[in-house]
Amino acid sequence: MRSVPANEPLGNRLEPGVSDPASDLALYDYHLPKELVAQQPLPNRSDARLLVLSRRQGGVEHRHVRDLPQLLRPGDVLVLNNTKVIPARLVGYRERTGGFWEGLFLEQDRHGLWRLMCRTRGKLHPGEIVVLRDREGQEWLKLHLVCRLEDGTWAVRPDPVGPALELLQRVGRVPLPPYIRRGQMVPSDWERYQTVYAQHAGSVAAPTAGLHFTEQLLQRLQERGIGIQYVTLHVGPGTFRPIKTQDIRQHTMHAEWGQITPEVVQRLQQTRAAGGRIVAVGTTSVRVLETAAREGTLRPWEGWTRLYICPGFEFHATDVLMTNFHLPRSSLLVLVCAFAGRERVLAAYEEAVRERYRFYSYGDAMLIF
Questions:
Q1: C-alpha separations of 335 from 32, 192, 281, 325 in Å
Q2: Across the chain, what does the average pLDDT equal?
């Protein structure tokens, strides 16, 4: 688990020109009937619907994720985020009052302290103890609250001590977003809120566009001559946070750790040179690619990024985007609008609502050429 060092350089956020006409947050809103928010994944991941949108013409086509081998071209390369979701949601009670408590694990520092987001009734105080139960309901781990940090999170000391991932495997739960069953997991979420190619543990939210892929679909894509490459971006809690500034250009992104290796960069450069396209699967893959290409050329990169992509951004390393449908007034929706045009994207969202697509993490997807 990585914390952001004070001297760690962060990716620059976008500073678009003052003439940008689409900077009002109200322009990135839309109406979504509550029943269209998917509460369960489909039995087969690749059966999700896929709204195909042309950036040039604005036309849409209704397909399915399983159609990707026919929709893409031999020589294209998919870029997938191979981060792995950790069981970061914690549930327990305050030892002093017996009151309900829940939290979200964010990171462990070099001293073994955890940083958590906490929610409870009343006010927490340094020195309090929170008791966590394991998956069998047994009291097993105590959290000693050390201090409240400037950003509102808490530094806590776990008892017993140990590697965070090992402790979380026993007491943690799937960190579902609140719009899915109010964050209450069911046993199937252990598998379904994780991509089939997840490898590097560190995310507190899934890279949801990748949830649609199966081993069989990946094999069919490769048999068609479509390459697959992996990057890493550990998704942080800021992915749930709406933009709160009326001028979207004033929004500040949360920092997330990512990586793209020299080998992947070389293969993507070869793809472009041969006339193929870089197909970013998910906004997280886009942020890795574009952070690594800020100077105009894709380069190997590892570190922290706060790259904020909004209209006016110049894309250097993303030709095609596959992404889920995103929350209104979110940085994710703004990114998609920057890629394909705000009016075009919101018109496609209206079409998806009319056609009863399923929205958000367990929902359907878009493919934007």
A1: 19, 25, 13, 12
A2: 93
DSSP per position, 48-91: SEEEEE-TTT--EEEEEGGGHHHHS-TT-EEEEE-EEE---EEE
- The answer to whether 107 and 236 are in contact (CB under 8 A) is no
DSSP H helices, the chain, are: 68-71, 164-171, 189-192, 215-223, 262-273, 283-292, 331-340, 342-354
**For 302-313, what is the mean pLDDT?**
95
Fold adopted by 89-173: Thrombin, subunit H (2.40.10)
Asked if 22 contacts 342 with a C-beta cutoff of 8 angstroms, the reply is yes
| pLDDT tens track for 146-166 | 999 998 999 999 999 999 999
What letter does residue 342 receive in the DSSP assignment?
H
How many whole angstroms separate alpha carbon 358 and alpha carbon 347?
16
Give the whole-angstrom CA distance, residue 128 versus residue 130.
Answer: 7
Backbone Cα Rg of the chain: 21
Which CATH number among 3.40.50.1000, 3.40.190.170, 3.40.1780.10, 3.40.50.1980 corresponds to the domain 25-85+190-368? 3.40.1780.10
For 127-137, the pLDDT digits (tens) are 999 999 887 78
**Number of other CB atoms surrounding residue 152 within 10 Å:** 8
